[in-house]
Amino acid sequence: MSTVALTCARGGSKGLPGKNVLPLAGKPLIAWAIECATSAARVDRMIVSTDSPEIAEAARAAGAEVPFMRPAELARDDSPEWLVWRHALTWLKENEGRYPDALLVVPATAPLRERQDLESALDEFEKGGADMVISVTEAHRSPYFNMVRANDDGTVGLVIPPTGVVFRRQDAPVVHDITTVGYVARPEFVMEKSGMFQGRVRAVHVPVERSLDIDTPLDFQMAEWLLARRTT
To answer: Domains of the chain by range and CATH?
Structure first.
């Protein structure tokens, strides 16, 4: 199975400006994703899609290819990342004549992932019968127990009212949080559909301590603390 890993990293982050190249435990944030992906035995190549020359330079220094620059219309705040995946796949098909068997998307914002997390997702994909494999972890909240939405009359109610009385979260149906640790997709599915749940999706579990997604300065501080604990 041929596998191309893809990290999408635009230069205009607002929640944490410049986050993709901020130094985390001695190296740019994006380097953590690149080094983890390239350490996986089944990853044939590692590509970064970015609109930023600074990110491109950091990506190449970490061992990734940056064979194209992302167009501005795919680097806005509201640009769907699904279209960024399509853009990368289109480039591969037009310039190299074929899609890989699998696209392994490795977001830069989950630096605590380990190689085994990506390998588990690839294992699940190789079983066949799935258009995508996503990574999940234990949910922090449950729509059946402690997540609410506003009603038109100003009151609030559970997002999904259970059929019976639920006194403890453990009694509610089991739900999971989707993580940004990694996604494996069938390239033809990405090109034909407009979202992951339009196909057959399977999931692999990632421990919560490896699933942190960096979006704010607080997230970054938490990642620094957790990485420091790994080396002590």
So the answer is: 3-139+175-225 (3.90.550.10)
